[in-house]
């Protein structure tokens, strides 16, 4: 009788949980080590694009996500005065690819974690190192040591797994801007899903299904800079004078519920695998949020890796995983970085040229430019 293969997933984020679900359903013994005492970040939302939804369908969770989330509404990009620069043809997007779904991160995490056996997730466990021993991999953590046939590093931007097995990898690079995120109380109006672009600043609104909205904003600032009077006050100072519906949305925000994070991405790694260790999600290819693809790419990673392990021994499966995933993910990192650079332009001339270029671009062409990203199918 053959031995049940085992995997340790370091990191209980979206990609890590998805990888654990996919391997568990293929007969693997899986353990997820997560340093936080609880999973799921309150106070923020996420947009799941057609490619991410297909990955969730491969896990058998897509229908549940669509019920819990909100199908994409009409939206687009506005200029600083509130005038539309472009409107997203969500009907065409759904016709060509499927709809987008917006969902609270806490709801997504609840669905993912509920799909795992009860004894899979080890919360409050801090990993300090990994060592590939040839036939197995040893993980050292705050509860001791664990061994497995495979280790998946899904522990995010500041990955301990990457630092252990890729000691010469370049550190994350600051993108030049910071971001705020929050979820409003129920609104007394129904906003479009939109981004408003100014000079070195942006503000986005994503409606959620319960009458609330997920808000996000970005501003070009020095790395590590923080609002001297608190982040809600900083949001109000920067974006309170902006056009409707931004002031009304900010009026529905709890001041202590605003999250702020500087934005980074990861310089390209030469490989996503080392021996019996594989990286996925932000640990492998952290990207700026300008294409909304961070979690969606992590879901693609997880589903692809599990499918390859279902058909091949670990060594050839990891080689194929690196060949399939690294070029695609790194292209999206580069494209997202470029979009962020343009979106954060602050020169009056540059922003005027940018806005005119967006205004003159056909909507169909802008939607079809997403082909290389969203027209992805999970491997059999």
From TrEMBL:
Biological source species: Nocardia terpenica
4Fe-4S among keywords: no
Gene3D superfamilies per UniProt: FAD/NAD(P)-binding domain (3.50.50.60)
This protein's name: NAD(P)-binding protein
Origin: domain of life: Bacteria
Domain FAD-binding: 7-336
Signal peptide annotation: none
Keyword Oxidoreductase: yes
Pfam families for this protein: FAD_binding_3
GO MF, one example: FAD binding
Keywords: Monooxygenase, Oxidoreductase
């Amino acid at each position: 009788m053959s031995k049940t293969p085992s995997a340790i997933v370091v990191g209980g984020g979206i990609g890590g949980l998805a990888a654990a679900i996919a391997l568990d359903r293929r007969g693997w013994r899986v353990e997820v080590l997560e340093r936080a005492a609880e999973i799921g970040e309150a106070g923020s939302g996420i947009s799941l694009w057609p490619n991410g939804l297909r990955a969730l369908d491969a896990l058998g969770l897509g229908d549940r996500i669509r019920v819990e989330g909100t199908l994409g509404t009409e939206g687009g990009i506005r200029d600083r005065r509130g005038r539309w620069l472009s409107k997203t043809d969500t009907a065409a997007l759904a016709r060509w690819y499927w709809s987008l779904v917006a969902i609270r991160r806490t709801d997504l995490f609840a669905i993912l974690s509920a799909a795992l056996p009860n004894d899979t997730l080890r919360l409050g466990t801090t990993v300090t190192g990994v060592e590939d021993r040839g036939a197995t991999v040893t993980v050292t953590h705050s509860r001791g040591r664990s061994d497995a046939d495979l280790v998946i590093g899904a522990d995010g931007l500041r990955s301990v797994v990457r630092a252990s097995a890729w000691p010469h990898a370049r550190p994350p690079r600051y993108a030049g801007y910071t971001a705020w995120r929050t979820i409003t109380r129920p609104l007394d109006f129904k906003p479009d899903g939109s981004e408003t672009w100014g000079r070195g600043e942006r503000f986005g609104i994503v409606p959620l299904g319960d009458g609330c909205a997920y808000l996000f904003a970005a501003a070009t600032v020095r790395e590590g800079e923080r609002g001297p009077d608190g982040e809600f006050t900083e949001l109000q100072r920067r974006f309170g004078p902006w056009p409707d519906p931004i002031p009304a949305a900010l009026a529905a925000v709890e001041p202590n519920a605003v999250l702020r994070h500087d934005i980074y991405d990861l310089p390209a790694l030469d490989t996503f695998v080392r021996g019996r260790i594989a990286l996925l999600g932000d640990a492998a290819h952290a990207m700026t949020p300008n294409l909304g693809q961070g979690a969606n790419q992590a879901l693609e990673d997880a589903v692809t890796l599990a499918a390859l392990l279902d058909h091949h021994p670990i060594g050839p499966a990891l080689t194929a995983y690196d060949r399939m995933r690294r070029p695609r993910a790194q292209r999206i990192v580069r494209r997202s970085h470029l979009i962020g650079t343009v979106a954060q332009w602050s020169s009056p001339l540059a922003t005027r040229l940018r806005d005119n270029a967006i205004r003159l671009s056909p909507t169909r062409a802008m939607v079809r430019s997403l082909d290389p990203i969203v027209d992805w199918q999970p491997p059999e």
